[in-house]
Amino acid sequence: MSESLTFMMGKFAAVLPGDRRYARNHMWAMESAPGRWRFGFTTYAIRLMQDVYFLSWSLDAGDPISLLQEIGHIETSKAESDLFSPLAGTLVAFNDGLLTDPSAINVDGHGGGWLFDIECEDPTPLLDVTAYHQYLTDNWEKTQRLIKGKINED
Q: Is the pTM value of this prediction over 0.70?
């Protein structure tokens, strides 16, 4: 198991547990059984989104999914966005409690705020904690410009 890393978002710390893998769409993954991965939002994503108000799924448990397939929708205090699958496989379970009360995402993102489980044979798109931290570092300037509405400025 790797050590946890911290990515500084200005004055805010996003802790990245070392016992997880990470997707480029800012979800953490933990293997809950052989070939079965549980996903949730990283602390980085939660900080950017701030309060989650609404979450819905466009697929059902048992449905096959492809990498980056749209699987749902989220509304937060900062944005409305579609959600995309971080892996190809079979979507096997949702955290149904989040549909009526998504606040667990904000208060316990690495525990009770988990989103869904996927069974897959190939988790290679997932990054280890060091690679994800580097991905955040490499893209932080672009993210700041996006947040400030200056994405097209050099």
A: yes
